[in-house]
């Protein structure tokens, strides 16, 4: 008999693990939802969800926390993908939170709706009575995330308590909560940025155009290239120039920086990332630069 | 390229962070902005060297106290393999964290300081790794530079540890003399130790054979979720009924005769479906969907196996339990929720046979309870049958977690020894 080597490739192992996690949620929770921003991680998550329940449709809605400061290319992409899959999209709007007085808009040049999103997100979870919320967070992104569980418990205030996390062994996940509490679930916990890109290439899934190199009017702030757009407040000492750029992450226009790049295909992006020496959040996210524990602090409050 | 998951146990003193830092750095998994942040913090604190442990200690409390309190997962890749490191603290008060990290590990690295030799904590780490059935153990004898790269010292440690390991069920034991600080035998073979004929640590990690560590013999398919599209438009989909799950053992093939538990009814596999289409066979860790020839009432928590190779349907379980709760103690008559594969039931602690001293392996048969981080042999009775194998035979069908119904916390991890 032919000896067969039952080796499984890294992408297949990661995908099988993520599918298992998604099915576990669908089986054990009443009202799950998947956070979809139109960014690459949530695109991959959505792809895995499509596979996990096939040939049945995805058995939960998507939720987008809309800061109102999104890249238009991303919103257009989001709506198209949602229509293709025939899933329900819940939009939780930061603008609505501001209009109803739930949060107060920051002012000044560095005003950002990044931190306001937490309230909108938690309100969205509460209003829709979601008990499990899929997020695209990866442990390689940031050191507070490196310690977060796949099934991450949130109390009735949406808070994460990093010192009191449930041990997580084998592939057994504790899904028990009380009313008002919820679990954030991170099916891509063990993926790296490169894994995500290799998966996008293998699956041939579409991504928003801003991930590819394009010519854009930008200005420099704190060593980052920010888009020149009406929602971004720019000073006179911050001159606009044209550059060939692409985005490594997709977030709020006010705090997501572009990187100079000529990569116009997924293959070229993979080559670029393999050679880069700076993390994606370090290169492009003003929101993480606030302090050493910026992410941990926001996560404790209930951030993504 | 496949994935190797490995756990490291130890404290800063053992050079564990230096070792991980070196593996990450030499494989280019540490980025400039991360390194700059670490250098800045080290400088601010007045540390003379760049403290690489700051890379892995991610929480504010850990950085403030200079300790590791939880499992951190780290990632790096070489052209041969992707690696997932479960970096666990080594102190006895963090036994539950090491148990957690070891539960999914293919390999464990135990660090020994060449000057100090085999310490109590080295024995504890080795015991926990073998208790969790980590298939491969690597004893990294570190700080060889401080013992003049002495072959004699290395051999002494090897002999002492080998003698101890014979009391454990250690299957594959490899010794590598290293200096994490100087890089000797970490990535490349060291010129300072020409007497060492083995491979470098990274070379070993890249090449250790793990494909056959999984159970490919006993077919075990815990049903996780039933897929029923209920399509009104497509007749084929309207009648579609698939059993989704992740293979926990054996190799399933279309056409195979299989048995459903708890009913004991047999049928054959009509097809193994994935999004990409039908596949001929499925094995661990694949997530697939089975369709069966006969209409049997099957739901989540059931098990599909082979008629001539079944797990035990057991309500009396003998297990080694690592207790992980801060307040609550495990003692006879404690009632808990048990989660095993995709099945959840309630469990009653009938007996605590002994508590094990994780340092000396001494069995204390007078113990009446287990507290945080304590390990003991326990008898449980469950409200419904669980479909179990011995943990030594299959980690996925032999492991379970215990949950406290009052707090919903995960309070214990169990490894099945025997059942009926």
TrEMBL record, chain A:
It comes from the Bacteria. GO terms for molecular function: ATP binding; sulfate adenylyltransferase (ATP) activity. Gene3D superfamilies: HUPs (3.40.50.620). One of its GO terms (biological process) is sulfate assimilation. Residues 32-257 form the Phosphoadenosine phosphosulphate reductase domain. Residues 282-304 are annotated as: Disordered. Keywords: ATP-binding, Nucleotide-binding, Nucleotidyltransferase, Transferase. The keyword Acyltransferase does not apply. Its EC number is 2.7.7.4. Pfam families: PAPS_reduct. The keyword Acetylation does not apply. Belongs to the PAPS reductase family. CysD subfamily. This is Sulfate adenylyltransferase subunit 2.
TrEMBL record, chain B:
InterPro entries: CysN_GTP-bd, CysN_II, CysN_NoDQ_III, G_TR_CS, GTP-eEF1A_C, P-loop_NTPase, Small_GTP-bd, SO4_adenylTrfase_lsu. The keyword Plastid does not apply. GO terms for molecular function: ATP binding; GTP binding; GTPase activity; sulfate adenylyltransferase (ATP) activity. Its EC number is 2.7.7.4. Keywords: ATP-binding, GTP-binding, Nucleotide-binding, Nucleotidyltransferase, Transferase. Gene3D superfamilies: P-loop containing nucleotide triphosphate hydrolases, Translation factors. CDD domains: CysN_ATPS, CysN_NodQ_II, CysN_NoDQ_III. Residues 1-214 form the Tr-type G domain. GO terms for biological process: sulfur compound metabolic process. NCBIfam families: CysN, PRK05124.1, small_GTP. PANTHER family: TRANSLATION FACTOR. This is sulfate adenylyltransferase. It comes from Sphaerimonospora thailandensis. The lineage of its organism: Bacteria, Bacillati, Actinomycetota, Actinomycetes, Streptosporangiales.
């Amino acid at each position: 008999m032919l000896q067969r080597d039952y080796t499984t490739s890294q992408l297949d192992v990661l995908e099988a693990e993520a599918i298992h996690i998604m099915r576990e949620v669908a089986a054990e929770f009443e009202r799950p939802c998947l956070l979809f921003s139109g960014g690459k991680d949530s695109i991959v998550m959505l792809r895995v969800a499509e596979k996990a329940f096939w040939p049945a449709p995805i058995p939960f809605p998507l939720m987008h926390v809309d800061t109102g400061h999104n890249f238009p290319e991303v919103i257009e992409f989001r709506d198209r993908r949602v229509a293709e899959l025939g899933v329900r999209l819940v939009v939780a709007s930061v603008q609505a939170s501001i209009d109803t007085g739930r949060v107060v808009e920051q002012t000044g040049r560095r005003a950002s709706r990044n931190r306001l999103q937490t309230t909108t997100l938690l309100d969205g979870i509460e209003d829709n009575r979601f008990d499990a919320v899929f997020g695209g967070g990866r442990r390689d992104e940031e050191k507070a995330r490196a310690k977060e569980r796949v099934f991450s418990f949130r109390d009735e205030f949406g808070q994460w308590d990093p010192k009191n996390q449930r041990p997580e062994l084998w592939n057994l996940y504790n899904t028990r909560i009380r009313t008002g509490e919820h679990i954030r679930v991170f099916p891509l916990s063990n993926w790296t940025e490169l894994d995500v890109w290799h998966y996008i290439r293998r699956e041939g899934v579409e991504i928003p155009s801003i991930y590819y190199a394009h010519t854009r009017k930008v200005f420099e702030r704190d060593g980052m290239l920010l888009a020149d757009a009406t929602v971004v407040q720019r000073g006179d000492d911050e001159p606009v120039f044209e550059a060939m750029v692409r985005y490594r992450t997709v977030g709020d226009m006010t705090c997501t920086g572009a990187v100079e790049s000529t990569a116009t295909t997924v293959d070229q992006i993979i080559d670029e990332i393999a050679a880069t020496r700076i993390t994606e959040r370090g290169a492009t996210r003003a929101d993480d630069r606030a302090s050493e524990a910026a992410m941990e602090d926001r996560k404790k409050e209930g951030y993504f | 390229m496949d994935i190797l998951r490995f756990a490291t146990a130890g404290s800063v003193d053992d050079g564990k962070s230096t070792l991980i830092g070196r593996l990450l750095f030499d494989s280019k998994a540490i980025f400039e902005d991360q390194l700059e942040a670490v250098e800045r913090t080290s400088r601010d604190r007045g540390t003379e060297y760049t403290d690489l442990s700051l890379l892995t200690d991610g929480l504010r409390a850990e950085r403030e106290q200079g300790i590791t309190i939880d499992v951190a997962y780290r990632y790096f890749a070489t052209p041969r393999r992707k690696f997932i490191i479960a970096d666990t603290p080594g102190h006895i008060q963090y036994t539950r964290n090491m148990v957690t990290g070891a539960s999914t590990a293919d390999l464990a690295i135990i660090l020994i300081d060449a000057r100090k030799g085999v310490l109590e904590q080295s024995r504890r780490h080795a015991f926990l790794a073998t208790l969790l059935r980590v298939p491969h153990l690597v004893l990294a004898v570190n700080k060889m530079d401080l013992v003049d790269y002495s072959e004699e010292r290395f051999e002494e440690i090897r002999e002492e540890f080998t003698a101890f390991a014979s009391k454990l069920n250690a299957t594959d034991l490899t010794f590598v003399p290293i200096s994490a600080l100087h890089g000797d035998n970490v990535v490349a073979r060291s010129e300072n130790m020409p007497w060492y004929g083995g491979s470098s640590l990274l070379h070993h990690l890249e090449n250790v054979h793990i494909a056959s560590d999984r159970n490919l013999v006993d077919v075990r398919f815990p049903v996780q979720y039933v897929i029923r599209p209920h399509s009104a438009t497509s007749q084929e989909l309207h009648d579609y009924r698939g059993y989704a799950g992740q293979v926990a053992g054996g190799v399933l093939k279309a056409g195979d005769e299989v048995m459903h538990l708890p009913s004991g009814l047999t049928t054959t596999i009509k097809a193994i479906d994935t999004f990409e289409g039908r596949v001929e066979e499925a094995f661990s860790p694949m997530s697939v969907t089975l369709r069966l020839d006969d209409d049997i009432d099957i739901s989540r928590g059931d098990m599909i196996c082979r008629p001539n190779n079944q797990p035990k349907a057991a309500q009396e379980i003998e297990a080694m339990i690592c207790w992980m709760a801060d307040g609550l103690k495990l003692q006879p008559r404690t009632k808990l929720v048990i989660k095993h594969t995709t099945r959840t039931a309630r469990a009653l602690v009938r007996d605590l046979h002994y508590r094990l001293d994780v340092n000396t392996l001494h069995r204390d048969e007078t113990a009446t309870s287990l507290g945080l981080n304590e390990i003991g042999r326990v008898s449980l009775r469950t409200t419904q049958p669980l479909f179990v194998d011995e943990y030594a035979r299959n980690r996925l069908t032999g492991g379970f977690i215990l949950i406290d119904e009052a707090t919903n916390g995960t309070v214990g991890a169990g490894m099945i020894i025997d059942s009926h």
